[in-house]
Design goal:
single chain; 352 residues; alpha/beta; Aspartate Aminotransferase, domain 2; seven-stranded mixed β-sheet; 13 helices; binds 4'-deoxy-4'-aminopyridoxal-5'-phosphate
Length: 352
């Protein structure tokens, strides 16, 4: 008999897969997606664009058109940009290129779990530093850990998923200044926070900035991008798979980004709904919502969070339960939906 487990490397054996809830639901508020569909007019342009794609041919390996559009928007040369099949893939690319077996990766805890999962799958060793009060980055502790383990790569989600806050900018600059490794600032929620380390890209040769189109309406396309020094991009391009960005995703995201005003309006609506939802949650006894600069809100409940999750789920509303996480006891995360969805969520949770 073949024992599959005997082939699996130790680090992978220890891993748990990334949690994705697959429960059918009426109102989906679990995955930080943009709840708004494209307008009919823009969808028409997308359909026209798709007609021109030659799917019998490989896609443009450099994703040149998409890169040009992004380059113009972020005012960063194309040589400093790499497109990924979602920013997840870029995290994998970074950890494939920088650091080898047993090298250390430093992260705050709690943070986006894929940093640790990918690090372990590539035989790197993630080390977490737990966040302080109000989910602040404990700078001294972070720096002393950095000094001790000399990480090859440091991940900072800015703002942080799942806590929703942005760490202190000066603290992050200190990390950038003191480390001898690569610092990845993951700005997945940039469109909702408008805070960025992009101005530091020129002076900080070890800085990588990650962004994604997933949170602003294109999660299904799987498009992320990173910005970094040209030399970093050259190294990363050596390990990037040649056709990592497919033709449909390149075409559709290019068309949507060329019509950015529509997306921008949706982002504005999400931000104002977030602030309303925050006020609504604050008024409910037994709920403590944490400030958010993203398109989601983390909140703590005064009872077992699974109970709240299940009751919402019984009503067709799916959010994310973090009750089993040591650092997020009795916490849940709700993604900002449409006004109707948010109201129904609030009404349901009020009744609990
Ligand atoms: N970074 C952070 C901080 C995230 O929260 C997420 C999505 N949950 C990602 C990266 C991955 O995004 P993508 O869909 O681009 O792979």
């Amino acid at each position: 008999m073949i024992d599959i487990k005997s082939f699996v490397k130790k680090e992978v054996k220890e891993l748990k897969p990334y949690h994705i809830e697959n429960t059918p639901c009426r109102i989906k508020l679990d995955a930080m997606e943009n709840p708004y569909p494209l307008s009919e007019a823009l969808m028409k342009k997308v359909v026209e664009g798709i007609k021109g794609i030659k799917i019998n041919r490989y896609p443009d390996p450099l994703a040149s058109r998409l890169k040009d559009i992004i380059s113009l928007h972020v005012k960063t040369p194309v040589d400093n940009i790499i497109i990924g099949n979602g920013s997840d893939e870029l995290i994998q690319l970074i950890l494939t290129a920088f650091g080898g077996h047993g090298d250390r990766v430093l992260l705050p805890i709690p943070t986006f779990s894929m940093y640790g999962i990918i690090a372990m799958s590539l035989s790197l060793m993630p080390e977490g530093v737990s966040l302080g009060k109000n989910w602040a980055l404990p700078l001294d502790k972070f720096l002393s850990n950095m000094e001790r383990i000399k990480p090859k790569v440091i991940f900072i989600s800015y703002p942080n998923n799942p806590t929703g806050n942005s760490f202190d900018k000066e603290s992050i600059l200190k990390v950038l200044e003191k480390t001898t490794g690569i610092v990845v600032i993951d700005e997945a929620y940039y469109d909702f926070s408008r805070k960025t380390f992009l101005p530091y890209l020129k002076e900080c040769k070890n800085l990588i900035i990650l962004r994604t189109l997933s949170k602003i309406g294109m999660a299904g396309l799987r498009v992320g991008y990173l910005m970094a020094d040209k030399e970093i991009c050259q190294e990363l391009n050596k390990v990037r798979l040649p056709y990592n960005s497919n033709a449909l995703s390149q075409e559709i995201s290019s068309i949507i980004l060329e019509n950015r005003t529509e997306i921008q309006k949706q982002i504005g609506a999400i931000i104002s709904e977030r602030d309303k939802l925050m006020e609504g949650l604050k008024e409910i006894e037994g709920i403590e919502p944490y400030p958010s600069e993203t398109n989601f809100i983390l909140f703590k409940v005064d009872r077992n969070s699974k109970e709240v999750f299940d009751r919402l789920s019984d009503n067709g509303i799916l959010i994310r339960n973090f009750g089993n996480d040591n650092y997020l006891k009795d916490c849940l995360r709700v993604t900002i939906g449409t006004p109707e969805e948010n109201n129904e969520f609030l009404d349901t949770i009020r009744k609990l």
